[in-house]
Amino acid sequence: MQQSISDIIRNQRTFFSSGRTRDVTFRIEQLKTLKKAIIENEKAILEACKSDMNKPQLEAYTSERGTVLNEIDHAIKNLNLWTKPERIKTPLLHTRFFGIAQHFLASSYVYTEPYGCILIIGPWNYPFQLTLSPLVGAIAAGNCSIIKPSEVAPHSSNIIARIIGDNFDPGYVAVIEGDAETASELLSEKLDYIFFTGGTKIGKIVMEAAAKQLTPVTLELGGKNPCIVDHDVNVEHTARRIVWGKFFNAGQTCMTTDYLLADRDVKKELLESIRKTIKEFYGENPSKSPDYARIINEGHFKRLSGFLREGEIIIGGDTNPADHYIAPTVIDNVSPEHAIMKEEIFGPILPVMEYHKLDDAISFVNGLPKPLALFFFSKDRNKQERVLRETSSGGGCINETFVHNINFCLPFGGVGASGIGKYHGKFSYDTFSNKKGIIRKSFLLDLTLRYPPYKDKFEKLKRFL
Question: Is 310 annotated as catalytic?
Fold first, then answer.
């Protein structure tokens, strides 16, 4: 008989209480088990991505399998170092507490400890990477984990469930498949940490549910990610990098370009180069390209098709409802009031606006909610620094798009409406660890100045200070 969600959580708490997950050797063994399982199921993983959204094999191999394996290798290599207590400077005097040498013969440390039972809610656009990469951090930090894959990518969800079920004790790592009702039931339980990747709308629901239980959260969301292009760029290189980042996975990527702000002096040349690049990448008819994905389902297809009614389509625009196909599309003459500029696109449609001064571009970006990523193309180092200094985003790139996400030495996550918390590499370990500040003191000497009775001590203290 299938276990209830409450029973699974109860069993995980029992497993966690046993202390096994606190052993670093145990954690490394589990990470190696996960790595072996991913390698052994490589073909099934790629086939699931193909079935769910026609994801090209190379895109699935690198962005799903490869990214997770890199995370695992990095964690295994560094875990012994990450788990060591970190020694911190200990000030001798603390003038706001009697000015007395409270820390005489004391040392200070930061210890990390696992939270306990973690819930990971994964998305559908990169179902393996964005579900299993957080799991790497949860395992490394010594937690038990419950995974809720996205039902929108059913083939990928099934493979994740099979991989985890075949290789892990459900008291340690369990997968619970289901729809929004299942997710709601999970969120109603008392958990020790929630890690959610998805849209802002659902993110608010997750945070509201977590608040009722005072459960800490990481929310990896999205937003209107700008790509600003200065007039002095290498146009050909810029176009190739924009097209690759925007239309990878048919634009269904939370950290890709959502709209293009081009200096009016380079806009015409840039758009022509983008046109040529799309043809170079995907041919005359991208619907026949083996390297171009499809929209995940009918609902998202209809939503994206609605964006094609505004502005001027200058590249692409072709659709096929039966195949959930939308061509790589560029729309010019877009207004901030158009629907396409009111929400995250999450598809292969690139709206374009122009600017005259960099001030205008910065002002426009700052007038929208803080994005998950920002991309700026320019040879001018002063302009690069200015854009980084005067805008706020979760991360981004200079003269590139998208690739900051795949450097596991960098923190990845949003700010404001685009998310809460960071992960990847050591940042994943930190996310799933409680940091304890600890003072360790010697018995060799015990200063009595701080202890009652305080008679005559006040004047002595003032003279001392």
Answer: no
